[in-house]
Amino acid sequence: MRFPQDFLFGAASAAYQVEGAWNEDGKGLSNWDVFSKIPGKTFENTNGDVAVDHYHRYKEDIKLMAEMELESYRFSISWARIIPDGDGEVNHKGLEFYNNVIDECLKYGIVPFVTLYHWDLPQALEEDGGWANKRSIDAFAKYAEVCYKAFGDRVKHWITFNETVVFCTHGYIFGAHPPGLENDQKKYFQATHNVFVAHAKAVQIYKSLKQYGEIGITHVFNPAYSIDDTEDNLFAEMHANYYQTFWYYDPILKGEYPEYVVKRLEEQGLTPDWTEEELTLLKEMADSNDFMGLNYYQPARVAKLQETIDLTSFSEISKGKSGSPSFDGVYKTVMMDDKVYTKWGWEISAEGFLDGLRMLKERYGDVKLYVTENGLGDEDPIIDNEIVDVPRIKYIEEHLKVVKRAIEEGINLKGYYAWSVIDLLSWLNGFKKQYGFIYVDHKNNLERKKKLSFHWYKHIIETRGEEL
Ligand code: BG6
């Protein structure tokens, strides 16, 4: 089978990870501009001040994408470039930059797939409570509307948020992303709810403008599987799926929260402050959400936590890594001897993806899906001056085969975006962990170079994956 003609082969990036130019042309401060400069917060104190300088080199980068025959480029907009203080005046230089990026894509027939929020919140909003404060909901709605009006004539694919589970758990539970809070479960659940409402409002505004494109959200897809068939561990699997997946997917696709989690939050006094009006909006907007974007890297292998853990010293024992307890102390993730892992301990399992897709279909029906991220973080081997990233090719190949199989089974997958189009700044792993098809030489003026995977992906696109 060749992939259908309307299936998009793409690759992705995010503003903070590629752009640099952190204080140029009227851009406001973002929470990451500030957080990354707190000593010890990131790997070797790296930050995105320069990143890979995409802000100044977007033409060169998009030209390379065109050479790769990329059909679509997923990138994010830096909110603080558009509205420097979050909800005040619009910065026209910011609009100009993204107009240029979009036009450059279109010049080569590359479909722009735009993420509105990939974690870099204007610092003024962060200082006012960030996503735990409802002010951010209306600020986001305003920012989204500015973007639709400025770019919507040419951008027909919108993602509101990238990976709510990651920026909320890392921000309010693990203390590893801004605002750097540890185990503040009350704020964590509040922040997730506020994001879902902000998403619903952004969808509502988009539909009211009648721009006739599509809008959805991107979630991490981290399906949980029990390590064995014991009752305890099967319970852990169910619980993990409710907290890590259904809590995020249900309010978007069903317009309501899963009863199992809602009940527990009530008992624990963790219910978010939510209004009837907000809950009604979630319900009303569920049918207007056009697609779900999935960022799949790995599944979770889980077991019930038998010991009682001290949740107050939680951050000492867990940063969400494999082998650590869940933040509610119910289960733990497990690294298994018979599984294969990356250098960073992420399991490689294309089958885990396929089984997870079947689970999604069972729960949510025929919803349209895009793989908005998937890829291998590695330290790429350089031999005779060539970047021979064979493990990346193998990784993407295995996952694309599964995507093909899923389509054959009737799963409604409409595109695949490799993470990432170019080597970029990893939030917590600096430039050491590479994902790109395009190499960036940090010792040589950020010079770009095509990796082996660049040529391989080009061939896959040209042949529409026929040989997979
Ligand atoms: C996703 C994010 O969580 O994973 C990306 O959307 C990120 O922004 C990617 O870079 C890989 O994560 P890491 O930690 O390996 O850089």
From TrEMBL:
Keywords: Glycosidase, Hydrolase. One of its GO terms (biological process) is carbohydrate catabolic process. It comes from the Bacteria. PANTHER family: GLYCOSYL HYDROLASE, LP05116P. Belongs to the glycosyl hydrolase 1 family. InterPro entries: GH, GH_1_N_CS, Glyco_hydro_1, Glyco_hydro_1_AS. GO terms for molecular function: 6-phospho-beta-glucosidase activity. Gene3D superfamilies: Glycosidases. Pfam families: Glyco_hydro_1 (PF00232). It catalyses: 6-phospho-beta-D-glucosyl-(1->4)-D-glucose + H2O = D-glucose 6-phosphate + D-glucose. This is Aryl-phospho-beta-D-glucosidase. The active site is at E373 (nucleophile). GO terms for cellular component: cytosol.
